[in-house]
Design brief:
Oligomer: single chain
Number of strands: 0
Family: Belongs to the NTAQ1 family.
Subunit structure: Monomer.
Distance between the termini: 43 Å
Radius of gyration: 18 Å
Shape: elongated
Helix content: 25-40%
InterPro entries: N_Gln_amidohydro_ab_roll_sf, NTAQ1, Prot_N_Gln_amidohydro_ab_roll
EC number: 3.5.1.122
Catalytic activity: N-terminal L-glutaminyl-[protein] + H2O = N-terminal L-glutamyl-[protein] + NH4(+)
């Protein structure tokens, strides 16, 4: 890991990083910026989005019951 100045706090491992088939080395930064503003409100397309969006979908806590009832209808 690096500190806020970019200096190593701990040396990285000696082995090569794991690389996905598409060449991605890591995607943690794609998950770090998820907020309530990203929550879907369109439940008519949620079943499709669940299986086609790279990282799934973001919903609000009070939408969980509706989400699971939509999935159960498949």
């Amino acid at each position: 890991m690096k500190d806020s100045d970019g200096n190593w706090m701990q040396e990285p491992p000696q082995h090569e990083p794991i690389v996905a088939e598409d060449g991605t080395v890591h995607n943690l930064n794609e998950y770090m910026n998820i907020s309530a503003a990203n929550a879907t409100t369109d439940f008519t397309s949620i079943k499709h989005e669940l299986y086609t969006q790279k990282h799934g979908v973001v919903i609000k806590e009070n939408q969980l019951e509706e989400l699971f009832s939509q999935i159960a209808l498949q």
